[in-house]
């Protein structure tokens, strides 16, 4: 079909992850195209946040049993039924994706789903990859990101996995070599080790999760080194196939062997595969679609959101940006005035790494706070120093609070330990709504002897520091 014969839509959305969530009832009756090249629903539901956390929970159950004896409860893991774990996760997720696709394909009047690789061929003109070309008044680029694979692995001919397929392995491997020291490496190391797999990690940094506050990164690295075979400050030289799986050759000539290989070295935004130049959308030096605070790209009528344009690569950020785009799609976003437009708020973006132990953070690291010139007051409180931590026999967890000394404003909070993401959320709330540390610590009751007392004590310690 030629561009001249293109079918016209009021709205076209490239990507059915967070992009699909835009279509609430305000869009009923509008003529909408959704373009999706892969599994409907995108990364989070199919291969990201949700399945990984379902595996994380199964891993935690196994870990609890393995550690039960220190509480005077003798128990052991009889067997890991890997295929049942996989079936539990995907038996729940796959139907959700299939139903969401069916809903858009056949139960949403006015919406057309194009299942193909979309590319721009002109201003707001898209080749849908299905033999049809469409035009649209407004376009949303919500095309996400993809896993990076180092050339040494890609060209090796050796079987390897990424987060896209590691959760569907036919069998649990005896050992797993993980290349990378970030989020995905940490989460899958936690999952597979709890299920009995020997873990080796190869990371080029001197610490794991090195983007985190130094105290947290150090604590995690120390704990990881005690239970996994961790190779820090090493790069990959080559990858070889062996009789039992794979051998990874490092830059110092040493080798790390395992039965399976997981590559977890970051993700690339998919804007480079959309021929965005044809529609006037700019990419930055990191390949992200350039957007302003209203999620508008450099081309009239085109918004972008989520991993394709955001440095955060987090689902709650993509969701927030999708809500901003939804609101701005319904306004006249290129009229010249921005008075009516909704702004994205990236001030206090929290994140959690669901590894062992869990990690969560919000705001500045101590290093960044000092580098920004703040006069900081810092306190680290351990789980072992609160009553619930005693109950848990916890020797790993800590909560670090960074305050601006004069105002008592919370600049950053960093937690490693059980339920870190749950413990962090009230601090996110305090930062978002301008609650200072003194009011947060002493202006409310803290349930005794709940685990959040570690946050209360970290706040009080920072106030005294
Ligand atoms: C293993 C893993 C675990 C994660 N865990 C968490 C977590 O616990 N918490 C968290 O906050 N975040 C997590 N994330 C990150 C989170 O999944 C992403 O930030 C989020 O899903 C991005 O949403 P999105 O809508 O931008 O992109 P996606 O959900 O990836 O959607 C983009 C869609 O666009 C499609 N597409 C791309 N290019 C084209 C094209 N040219 N034509 C047609 N379709 C196209 C893709 O197929 C995809 O379906 C995790 C990610 C991974 C990989
Ligand atoms: N719980 C969560 O919110 C969650 C979970 C998983 C993934 N994610 C998102 O997905 C994104 C991707 O995760 P990720 O772990 O792949 O990326 P990451 O950016 O967290 O970590 C990448 C790691 O790979 C290393 N690396 C990069 N290139 C390398 C190379 N050529 N050889 C060896 N090591 C190399 C980096 O030094 C880093 O340690 C994250 O940025 C995160 O935002 C979030």
UniProtKB/TrEMBL annotation:
Cystine pairs: 44-49
Pfam families: Pyr_redox_2, Pyr_redox_dim
Binding site for FAD: 53, 307
Gene Ontology MF annotations: flavin adenine dinucleotide binding; mycothione reductase [NAD(P)H] activity; NAD(P)H dehydrogenase (quinone) activity
Segments forming domain Pyridine nucleotide-disulphide oxidoreductase dimerisation: 349-458
Cofactor note: Binds 1 FAD per subunit.
Protein name per UniProt: Mycothione reductase
Species lineage: Bacteria, Bacillati, Actinomycetota, Actinomycetes, Mycobacteriales
């Amino acid at each position: 079909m030629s561009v001249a014969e293109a079918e016209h839509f009021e709205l076209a959305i490239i990507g059915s992850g967070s992009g699909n969530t835009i279509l609430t009832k305000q869009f009923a009756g509008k003529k909408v195209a959704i373009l999706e090249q892969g599994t409907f629903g995108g990364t989070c539901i199919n291969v990201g946040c949700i399945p990984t956390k379902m595996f994380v929970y199964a891993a935690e159950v196994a870990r609890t049993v393995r550690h039960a004896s220190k509480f005077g409860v003798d128990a052991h893991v009889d067997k890991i039924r890997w295929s049942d774990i996989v079936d539990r996760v995907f038996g729940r997720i796959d139907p959700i994706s299939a139903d969401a696709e069916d809903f858009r394909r056949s139960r949403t009047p006015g919406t057309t789903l194009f299942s193909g690789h979309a590319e721009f061929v002109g201003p707001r003109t898209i080749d849908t990859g299905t033999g049809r070309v469409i035009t649209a008044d407004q376009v949303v680029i919500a095309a996400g990101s993809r896993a990076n694979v180092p050339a040494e692995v890609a060209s090796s001919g050796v079987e390897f996995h990424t987060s896209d397929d590691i959760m569907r392995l036919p069998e649990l491997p005896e050992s797993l070599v993980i290349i990378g020291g970030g989020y995905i490496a940490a989460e899958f190391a936690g999952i597979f080790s709890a299920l009995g797999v020997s873990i080796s990690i190869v990371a080029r940094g001197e610490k794991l999760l090195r983007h985190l506050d130094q105290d947290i990164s150090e604590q995690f690295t120390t704990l990881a080194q005690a239970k996994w075979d961790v190779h820090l400050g090493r790069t990959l030289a080559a990858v070889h196939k062996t009789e039992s799986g794979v051998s990874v050759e490092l830059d110092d000539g040493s080798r790390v062997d395992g039965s399976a290989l997981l590559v977890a070295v970051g993700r690339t935004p998919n804007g480079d595969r959309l021929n965005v130049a044809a529609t006037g959308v700019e990419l930055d030096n990191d390949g992200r679609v350039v957007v302003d605070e209203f999620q508008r790209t450099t081309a009239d009528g085109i918004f972008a959101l989520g991993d394709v344009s955001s440095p955060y690569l987090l689902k709650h950020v993509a969701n927030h940006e999708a809500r901003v785009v939804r609101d701005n799609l319904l306004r006249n976003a290129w009229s010249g005035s921005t008075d009516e437009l909704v702004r994205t708020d990236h001030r206090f973006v929290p994140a959690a790494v669901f590894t062992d132990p869990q990690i969560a953070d919000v705001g500045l690291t101590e290093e960044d706070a000092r580098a920004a010139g703040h006069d900081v007051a810092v306190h680290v409180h351990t789980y072992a120093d609160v009553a619930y931590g005693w109950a848990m026999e916890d020797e790993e967890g800590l909560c670090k609070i960074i305050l601006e000394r004069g105002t008592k404003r919370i600049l950053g909070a960093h937690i490693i330990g059980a339920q870190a993401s749950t413990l962090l959320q009230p601090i996110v709330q305090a930062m978002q709504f301008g609650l200072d540390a003194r009011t947060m610590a002493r202006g409310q009751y803290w349930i005794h002897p709940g685990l959040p007392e570690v946050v209360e004590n970290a706040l009080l310690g920072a106030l005294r520091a």
